[in-house]
Amino acid sequence: MKIDTANIVFDFGGVLMRHDRESCLNDLRQLMSDEDRTNILGFGNDKDGTLRARFETGACDTRYFLEHVLTLCKPGTTKQQIIDAWNKIHAGIPDEAWETIRQLRANGYRTYLMSNTDAIHWQHTLLLYRQQVENLFDDVFLSFELGLTKPAEAFFRHVADAIGEGATLFVDDMEANRLAAQQFVGWQTYASIAELRLIPHSPID
């Protein structure tokens, strides 16, 4: 396979950042009822229409999100407890993932990040991995900053326009997002970072 000036667009959660949903859920269970957690935050259910969905599109800011969630929590709960519980979903990014991206960049690929995420999760990410994010991605496209979420066509077209010409590979663990990328902008897709071992060592191989 020959690829000319290839771009590689990475999803974040589930591709780079490992998820620990159970730890997040367990901490949230200590703060609020199961019904509120499901209906407002969307865990264990479709998140469309939830406060979480609004937070991911930037329709509400961190202050509003925390104050609203706080009204659902047990008396005495603090905003920091909510933040800590919310960030429990982050279980770390393996060193091998960063090394794979370093090698891809060394071999001539341009790398990007495209994520459905919110301001709290992104702040936590930068607290842990700011240097890697700044050094290993040519650009970062975040749902809460752009007001767009995958698998919406507008999000993919925005990213495709921003990164410009060149064949693009897209890595995302969600099938709906991979199908959207193929349909809307013609990207070749992969389900995991491990699958990138199948691509050429450099875009011109």
Please write out the topology:
Elements: E1 7-10, H1 21-29, H2 34-41, H3 51-56, H4 62-70, H5 79-87, H6 95-106, E2 110-115, H7 119-136, E3 139-142, H8 143-146, H9 153-163, E4 168-171, H10 175-185, E5 188-190
Parallel strand pairs: 1-2, 1-4, 2-3, 4-5
Helix pairs in contact: 1-5, 9-10
Task: Tell me what you see in this structure.
It contains ten helices and five strands; from the N terminus they run βααααααβαβααβαβ. The protein is an alpha/beta fold. The protein has a five-stranded parallel beta sheet with strand order 3-2-1-4-5, sandwiched between helices.
Looking at this protein, list some descriptive labels:
205 residues, alpha/beta, Rossmann fold, five-stranded parallel sheet, 10 helices, 47% helix
CATH architecture verdict of the largest domain: 3-Layer(aba) Sandwich
In round numbers, the mean pLDDT is 91
The figure for the number of domains is 2
End-to-end Cα distance, whole Å, is 8 Å
The largest sheet, given as strand count, sense and whether it forms a barrel, is: 5 strands, parallel
In what range is the share of β-strand residues? 5-15%
What is the tally of beta strands? 5
Low-confidence stretches: none
* The CATH topology of the largest domain: Rossmann fold
Biggest sheet, spatial arrangement of strands: 3-2-1-4-5
**Helical content, roughly?**
40-55%
CATH superfamily of the largest domain: HAD superfamily/HAD-like
Brief write-up:
The protein has helices spanning 21-29, 34-41, 51-56, 62-70, 79-87, 95-106, 119-136, 143-146, 153-163, 175-185; strands at 7-10, 110-115, 139-142, 168-171, 188-190.
